[in-house]
Amino acid sequence: MRNEQKVAIVTGASQGMGAGIVTSYRQQGYAVIANSRNIAASADDGIIAVAGDIGDPAVAAKIVETAQDRFGRIDTLINNAGIFISKPFDQYTVEDFDNVLRVNVAGFFHITQRVIPLMLRQGRGHIVQITTTLVNQALADVPSGLATLTKGGLDAVTRGLAIEYAKQGVRVNAVAPGIIKTPMHAPENFEFFEGLHPMGRMGEVENILDAIRYLEKADFVTGEILNVDGGQHAGRW
Questions:
Q1: Band (196; pLDDT cuts 50, 70, 90)
Q2: For position 147, what pLDDT does the model report?
Q3: pLDDT at residue 111 above 50?
């Protein structure tokens, strides 16, 4: 019997935005395959945890195989996993470069390349990258060379894949956040971060969830980079 329940894959799913995305898709009735390096099993039988480094091709393969074996379909992929290291560009180490490239680029590549053929067979699917508004509006106070190098690539490939697969029913979009209140940011830095946004405040995880829910329902939208950044991308202030 054909499984009618929709299925989402979420990477970087153990905390912050990723955990919020998992909860949001469950509330919409999706089964969720949730991945992060050390993710724990869930008491919710609609959330299947697959632990491991998304930059490892074997982990990406396991995630997709789990979705196929358990549910027989993949409707949505949220490429949320990412590493952000803020340093002056000349102070990055080779280890920094390798770690950021492994998660931000290789992680995207391995899982997305495996998901697309399944979506093509279904005749539909939706892929969303979480990038950063810094790609289009760099800030001198937040040096972010490796983030813009890697997330900028995701920004560009989002549009490229959207065009490549538009006629085959697969939509590809991205959400570009400003600085969002998550466990990765210490409260003592909030005042500084608030001042980086024209609206004078940091974003909340719910703001990102609203954007993803919109893109999920917007079936005539593809190739969109949706900035959720308090106006930061619009220019200097």
A1: confident
A2: 95
A3: yes
> Per DSSP, what are the bridge partners of residue 50?
35
Does the pTM of the predicted model rise above 0.85? yes
Residue 1: what pLDDT? Answer: 40
- With the CA atoms of 214, 77, 204 and 92 taken in that order, what torsion angle do they form, in degrees rounded to the nearest 10? -140
What local confidence, expressed as pLDDT, does residue 124 receive? 97
* Torsion, Cα of 166, 104, 199, 209 (10° steps): 60
Q: Contact 12/36 with Cβ under 8 angstroms?
A: yes
Domains for the chain: give ranges and CATH numbers. 7-233 (3.40.50.720)
DSSP string, the chain: ----S-EEEEES-SSHHHHHHHHHHHHTT-EEEEEETTPPPPSSTTEEEEES-TTSHHHHHHHHHHHHHHHS---EEEE---------GGG--HHHHHHHHIIIIIIHHHHHHHHHHHHHHHT-EEEEEE--GGGTS--TTS--HHHHHHHHHHHHHHHHHHHHHGGGTEEEEEEEE--B-STTS-GGGHHHHHTTSTTSS-B-HHHHHHHHHHHHH-TT--S-EEEESTTGGG---
Report the C-alpha gap between 57 and 53 in whole angstroms: 9
Torsion of CA 88, 148, 39, 57, to 10 degrees: -110
Nearest 5°: phi and psi at 28?
-90, 0
